[in-house]
TrEMBL record:
<keyword id="KW-0505">Motor protein</keyword>
<dbReference type="InterPro" id="IPR027640">
    <property type="entry name" value="Kinesin-like_fam"/>
</dbReference>
<keyword id="KW-0067">ATP-binding</keyword>
<dbReference type="InterPro" id="IPR036961">
    <property type="entry name" value="Kinesin_motor_dom_sf"/>
</dbReference>
<keyword id="KW-0547">Nucleotide-binding</keyword>
<comment type="similarity">
    <text>Belongs to the TRAFAC class myosin-kinesin ATPase superfamily. Kinesin family.</text>
</comment>
<dbReference type="GO" id="GO:0007018">
    <property type="term" value="P:microtubule-based movement"/>
</dbReference>
<protein>
    <recommendedName>
        <fullName>Kinesin motor domain-containing protein</fullName>
    </recommendedName>
</protein>
<feature type="binding site">
    <location>
        <begin position="105"/>
        <end position="112"/>
    </location>
    <ligand>
        <name>ATP</name>
    </ligand>
</feature>
<dbReference type="GO" id="GO:0005524">
    <property type="term" value="F:ATP binding"/>
</dbReference>
<dbReference type="InterPro" id="IPR001752">
    <property type="entry name" value="Kinesin_motor_dom"/>
</dbReference>
<dbReference type="GO" id="GO:0008017">
    <property type="term" value="F:microtubule binding"/>
</dbReference>
<dbReference type="GO" id="GO:0003777">
    <property type="term" value="F:microtubule motor activity"/>
</dbReference>
<feature type="domain" description="Kinesin motor">
    <location>
        <begin position="21"/>
        <end position="291"/>
    </location>
</feature>
<dbReference type="GO" id="GO:0005874">
    <property type="term" value="C:microtubule"/>
</dbReference>
<dbReference type="InterPro" id="IPR027417">
    <property type="entry name" value="P-loop_NTPase"/>
</dbReference>
<dbReference type="Pfam" id="PF00225">
    <property type="entry name" value="Kinesin"/>
</dbReference>
Amino acid sequence: MGAGEEDAAAAWEKVEAKEERIMVSVRVRPLNGRESGDSSDWECISPTTVMFRSTVPDRAMFPTAYTYDRVFGPNCSTRQVYEEGAKEVALSVVSGINSSIFAYGQTSSGKTYTMTGITEYSVMDIYDYIEKHPEREFMLKFSAIEIYNEAVRDLLSHDTTPLRLLDDPEKGTTVEKLTEETLRDKDHLRDLLGMCEAQREIGETALNEASSRSHQILRLTIESSVKQYLGRGKSSTLVSCVNFVDLAGSERASQTASAGMRLKEGSHINRSLLTLGKVVRQLRFVWFVFF
Ligand SMILES: Nc1ncnc2c1ncn2[C@@H]1O[C@H](COP(=O)(O)OP(=O)(O)OP(=O)(O)O)[C@@H](O)[C@H]1O
């Protein structure tokens, strides 16, 4: 086995050793200017437990505690959330393991804020790993889509025509004609991330002046081979990808004061999140997933 294959085998052993391959963390953001007069209903009482105590007087007597793999309170930085909640998952891509990190939550809860930081830190660590492994040849590719009002759009193209989803028996679901950029360096990736941010559909609601109105999926694919064996017929190439998913937030029309276009967007967002919830619930009962 070459160095890369050993890394991959070690990473797989680590994954196999864990009973759970899904990690769920909760981040409670600080109250903002609009909410600062209120007291928070949520309190992080340990690194894994968050407690909900309703401010409605009759219900305040019955707090409920929820336990997750990790809970981050309002004073935790995005760096800490990344280091303790996402780094291991993001970096498994360099060892040939596919992974996804996604943020799910109510509108204005801090999903985009958190995912932007996590993506940035992951990119820095992935390039750092590449620099420390000159014995391997790496090729990085990047693609980005948003799902807006149930239509899929390429965020690396100025063409707004919706793209078709195709079911490939080997590759699974793919997006037809999606741009995939081969990255020159991390500055190139930063430029592309900036382009995605600029292209993404956002709009103002009563709860968030820059609310994401679409689901965004950024995909980084990494191919790597041992340089020594390249072209000698002995080399094997590791190919894997990491997805950074920033979902649009669930919302109540009464709270976001949505009407017209915003209301239509909100109903698409809520419906797709409801479907995602159903899929996750069903997965609890499925032992094998066939592709
Ligand atoms: N941990 C945090 N610390 C400080 N400010 C935060 C934090 N999390 C979020 N914010 C701020 O709160 C506001 C809402 O955050 P953000 O846009 O990330 O929410 P969201 O969940 O993505 O919302 P939506 O679903 O509407 O797109 C932003 O102004 C953001 O800068």
